[in-house]
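Researcher: I'm preparing a figure for a lab meeting and need a structural model of a single chain. I don't have an experimental structure, so a prediction will have to do for now. The sequence is pasted below. Please return the structure as tokens so I can convert it later.
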Amino acid sequence: MDNIQFNDIFNLDEIQHLQDLFSETTGVASIIAHPDGKPITKPSNFCDLCANIMRKSYKGLAKCYDSNELLGMYNPRGPLLQPCLGCGMWNAGASITVGNKHMATWLIGQIRTEEVDDQLLVNYADDIGADREEFIKAYRRVPFMPLEQFHKVSNMLFAFANEISEKAYGNFLLKRQIAEHEKTISEKKEVEEQYKALFDLSNDAIFSVDLKTGIYLNVNKAAEILTGRSADELKKLKTSDLTPKDADKRLVKITGVKETIELGEVEYHRPDGSIRTALLSSIPLNERKIFGIAHDITKRKQLDIALKNSLALNEATLESIHNGILVVNDQGTVIKTNAKFAEMWGIPEEILASGDDKILIGSVLAQLADADSFIAKVAELYEKPEAESLDVINLKDGRIFKRISKPMYLGGKPKGRVWSFLDITERIRAEEALLNSKAHLHTLIQTIPDLVWLKDPSGAYISCNILFERLVGAREEEIVGKTDYDLFDHDNADFFRSNDRKAIAAGKPTNNEEWLTFANDGHRALLEVIKTPMFDSKGTLIGVLGIGHDITERKRMEEDLKDSEDKFSKAFLLSPYAITITSAKDGKFVEINDAFTSLSGFTREEALADSSTGLNLWANIEDRKQVISTLLNGGEIEGKEFLFKKKDNQIVTGLFSAQVIHLNNEPFILSSINDITYRKLAETEIKLKNEQLILAHAEKDKFFSIIAHDLRSPFSSFLGLTQILDEELSELTLDQIHELTHSMKNSASNLYRLLENLLQWARMQQGLMPFHPTLLQLYPIVEECISIAREPAKNKGIELNFSVSENIDVFADLNTLLTVIRNLVSNAMKFTTRGGAIDVFAEISDNKSVVISVKDTGIGMSPELLANLFRIDVRTSRPGTEGESSTGLGLMLCKEFIEKHGGKLWVESEVERGSTFYFTLPHTISDEII
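Model: Understood. Here is the structure written out token by token.
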């Protein structure tokens, strides 16, 4: 199952179609994902709230991911249901399990089960930075379904997912079984074809013969040629019909023999009266059937009559066999030996060259352990020319020879003798070693701390050890020959015999666990039983070997260990801290949790294939060396700050804790990292904000001091005028009163403008200024501002122009934009002398922004004034060219208004050459300022 993937079992097009149908039928959203969260299918029926609002927000997307992670946990017992961590919509997840392997998770949901208070929705929309109205509308469009019905849909999904999983897995197994079966048939067919080709195309005659009847069962084409009969004719005959001489003896000789036998020359009688001679070999197939292979030597015998007087074996065969061969004629003359004979006996060349059998015998007597018996046997055989002999000869140096002696026939009469010597020293020693091994094996079986027994194929006990005797409560001699049904109750006997058959059918060791009660003392034990079928060299089943190992204590320890491991595993995997187990030797990762992959950015596969140094996890490698040294010297690391490097090279700060653990007697390091990067950044940000706040307070204190001064002057002037009116009104002329009231009016207007700017600035600082940017046509806005300023400009003799294309749009708040343009035009008139000019321009600088400029030919500004122009803690106000009052507050308002739009405001100026104020606005709708 480890190598089987989702795509191996399911057709993605079919599963996508089923998913789409399920969503369409039930009205829920749906998607299938891998256990690691990677999508497998395309989403079906996702609602607008999730797809286009919540997931567009960083916080909303994070909460969606957290919800999906919980739903994607493996649960084979049923679906997981829960409201999402965001706005309370319900979702569910059903594990798709195949063969106890979690292949994927089918996620459904995005439904409402009850009405939610609008204020809660507003709070959540604000939390993720979404538009309140759009969020509530989208939420109302989410499908409504009672929770009980959603439970039913979820249960139906779980049943449906598991049903298609089982069927898909069954189809997968069936296809694999079919493929394996077809392979077996193909291999069997190939073997049969090879056998048939060998049988049909062999140049030697091949017969299959029934040993009990001697009837031919099957023959090949060469057999038809050899015998002169068709296959159908041969199948009606016996071997004695074709080879009458010694046919029955040959059948008796090969009956019961389990090895190939060379039967020598056989004469085959043909229907036309002719006889063909062949060398016949017998190959046993089973107890009733043999293969006879006949090599036709008729032509060879006819062409080489002289060959009848030579050795039965040719020179090549003689020299290639392992036997030492000596051929002596009936006169005692050595007519042939092979090199093996001289090597075995160590006979010098000159003695072999003598050709005298008596000299050869005399040269080897000193090597024999019993020379007299050797000489007596030779004499006996020479006296009986037709006798055959097989005996064993022991040599003084420890070697053992097998001696075979047969008469050599010429013309049907014995004309000498062939001696064959085979060194069987190693075989005899191997047999002795085997006997010793059997004795040692018996001792081992009796002393091994496990139950050991051996049964024959029928289930009868052949042998057992002492521990098995204790189980049965009887001695080995009382157990041998009995079956399980004689020794145990019927149910246990059935169970034991069934497991025997399973091992025999498997053809290899099988194991199972069995609770057994020992008859000697009545105690119960859990045994791990391994049963192994035993075969002889020919593949015949000779019995079943059983070994039972007491695992009662081990099982208890395993269960305790499993319980402990389960607890550790849950704590390890579900910890919010990044936890790893690494080799102390090379830093290679042995295990990691999901929090580590989230912290480091590396996948589980990438981490487990590498080490902490290979992944460059430590920002400072010397820190790791210090940690390893401390841990290996018996110390511990607890909550110490270190810098770590993520996969994308981003540096994070973590509280690091670690200690040494030992697995299989090897040191490993168990460590955890608590990511405090955001906390550190927050601390730094708070410190910076405090510093900025202190600076801002200082600047505002100075600003209020400046404002107080600016307010004091016109108030003093206003109070002075009122005092004059109060004290000298009766003495003043009408023109003087008119002049005084005109001055009071100007002072009050200046105070009003100053207070209005101050109030606007204060509202801006508190975030109370209405701000609703929309897509606006710039031309009419500039035209309106210029129209208002034309009368004042005319009174001061200033030419006022503007150049703005009618197709330029800006994304801005109308009121604040009007305020900015009016302020900049008003300031330009204030510092421009009579006869001067003011020009307003606008152009698109790129696809995203528009640059608007207000240029005058006024008195300009010095570099010092320019440097402090937008600082609230520095007085930059100065009177206009005709004494107009100025505080500099209007420019600061313009700057903050423009920056709120995401633009910027700057100025270029030279003394006596005028000034140009520039500012930028978005050309199209900007997500950044919505």
